[in-house]
Design goal:
Elements: E1 11-15, E2 18-22, E3 29-32, H1 35-41, H2 51-58, E4 83-86, E5 94-97, E6 103-106, H3 110-126
Antiparallel strand pairs: 1-2, 2-3, 3-6, 4-5, 5-6
The structure holds zinc ion (2 copies).
Length: about 130
């Protein structure tokens, strides 16, 4: 498939055993339908020192920056403009999601942020 940022062809790669599309130019990621949920559910992986702390510092914000509404990313399946969505409502990680449930676009680094955020949240709910 083509990159939603119009960089050219995306590559199919395996990430935590889930096949995803990654753009080699902008490092954006397209995840079909349930793929993000699968990745988030998959076992913990280790992150370089400092990365977790940095991500948690910048996450946990409500709302969506207005610039996100100016982006025109089309769903590769139905060509509708993707909606900016604050992942989990208040993570501060802005994903671009197809209203018809086809999938989600994540900019460079956002997939790792989602994983770190969800792992942190799981640890809190486990009381660990
Ligand atoms: Zn790209
Ligand atoms: Zn769609």
């Amino acid at each position: 498939m083509e990159c939603l940022n119009r960089c050219g062809s995306m590559l199919e790669v395996f990430y935590n055993d889930v096949e995803i599309d990654v753009c080699p130019v902008c490092i954006g990621v397209w995840l079909d339908d349930t793929e993000l949920a699968e990745i988030v559910r998959s076992p913990e992986r280790s992150w370089p020192p400092g990365v977790v702390e940095h991500v948690l510092e910048v996450t946990g914000k409500m709302g969506i920056p207005s610039a996100e509404f100016d982006r025109e990313l089309d769903c590769p399946q139905c060509s509708k403009i993707l909606d900016p969505v604050n992942y989990q409502a208040n993570s501060g990680i802005i994903t671009n999601t197809c209203q018809n449930g086809h999938g989600v676009w994540l900019d460079h680094g956002e997939l790792a942020k989602v994983q770190i955020y969800m792992e942190h949240w799981r640890k809190i709910t486990r009381g660990a």
